[in-house]
């Protein structure tokens, strides 16, 4: 049985593939050309097959060598991530808070919450990943201190903190026929209206579709967006109306768009997740507190607009 490669041999092989000549590889490794040549011969003896074709004073990796090189690069990619994480930790003045959040909260809740947190802990470094924290698991490894999701969640691997409970609202272009009136809008009010919808796999899109279909209400859908913020931008430009979470919608209330209540509006819950096996960092608890406060402030604002 032939021996495994050692790290020195891996470095030599990688350098030769990258630079194409023994001389260039030797210079990159701080070694000499005769030494690298000897090591290359030993390397090919170790692996048991030819690694390079010698053509016109250059070394061209064989098909097997390229497969080996790709496997090595994958390993180095993991090492690069480790070193990158280490460099960030060294550069941070204080604690590092890692947040995984749905994109809509990265644009609505988080900016204000992080701003308040930074005033309390100016040396804090916050790293935000726009991904669904529920897609992570104990097997793949949780990579967040706080995760932000919409809806309920029940999993023994995570602690769930309810931040706020709301109802979805209608965002309507200013001057639109549905923009004025008293009381909440009904399903029938949307008959033949241009409606900016979220993507076909969005859970709230599915709920709304079932509601409208059950009442036989037909909407026109000139635009379908994956992003709640993108849907609001479309509404501001007069393309249509939409129904979505109030935290995002409040950011677009103004001269170009108005908010109205929707009678059968689905509930909207904002929750924070914390992996139970991950130690609590002080800033995570503080952030959760600020998020709760901001959600409470949003509820008060919605109450003042008769949208609860």
From TrEMBL:
Pfam families registered for this protein in UniProt: HTH_1, LysR_substrate
Keywords: DNA-binding, Transcription, Transcription regulation
GO process terms (BP): lysine biosynthetic process via diaminopimelate; positive regulation of gene expression
InterPro entries: LysR_HTH_N, LysR_subst-bd, WH-like_DNA-bd_sf, WH_DNA-bd_sf
GO molecular function: DNA-binding transcription factor activity; sequence-specific DNA binding
HTH lysR-type domain location: 5-62
Family membership noted in the UniProt record: Belongs to the LysR transcriptional regulatory family.
Protein name: LysR family transcriptional regulator
UniProt organism field: Gemmobacter fulvus
């Amino acid at each position: 049985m032939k021996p495994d490669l050692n790290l020195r041999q891996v470095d030599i092989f990688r350098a030769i593939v990258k630079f194409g000549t023994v001389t260039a590889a030797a210079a990159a490794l701080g070694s000499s050309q005769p030494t690298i040549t000897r090591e290359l011969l030993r390397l090919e003896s170790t692996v048991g097959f030819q690694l390079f074709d010698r053509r016109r004073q250059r070394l061209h990796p064989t098909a097997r060598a390229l497969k080996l090189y790709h496997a090595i690069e994958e390993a180095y990619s993991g090492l690069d991530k480790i070193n990158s994480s280490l460099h960030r930790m060294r550069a941070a003045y204080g604690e590092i808070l890692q947040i995984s959040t749905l994109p809509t909260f990265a644009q609505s809740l988080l900016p204000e919450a992080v701003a308040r947190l930074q005033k309390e802990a100016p040396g804090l470094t916050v790293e935000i990943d726009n991904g669904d924290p529920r897609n992570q698991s104990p097997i793949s490894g949780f990579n967040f201190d706080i995760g932000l999701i919409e809806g309920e969640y029940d999993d023994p691997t995570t602690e769930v903190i309810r931040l706020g409970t709301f109802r979805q609202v209608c965002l309507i272009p200013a001057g639109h026929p549905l923009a004025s009136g008293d009381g909440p809008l009904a399903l029938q009010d949307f008959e033949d209206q241009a409606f900016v919808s979220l993507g076909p796999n969005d859970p709230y899109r599915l709920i709304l579709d079932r509601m409208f279909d059950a009442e036989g209400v037909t909407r026109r859908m000139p635009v379908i967006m994956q992003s709640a913020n993108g849907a609001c931008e479309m509404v501001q430009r007069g393309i249509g109306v939409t129904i979505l979470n109030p935290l995002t919608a409040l950011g677009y209330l103004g001269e170009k768009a108005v908010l109205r209540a929707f009678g059968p509006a689905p509930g909207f819950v904002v929750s924070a997740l914390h992996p139970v096996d991950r130690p609590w960092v002080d800033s995570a608890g503080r952030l959760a507190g600020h998020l709760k406060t901001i959600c409470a402030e949003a509820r008060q604002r919605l109450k003042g607009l008769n949208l609860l």
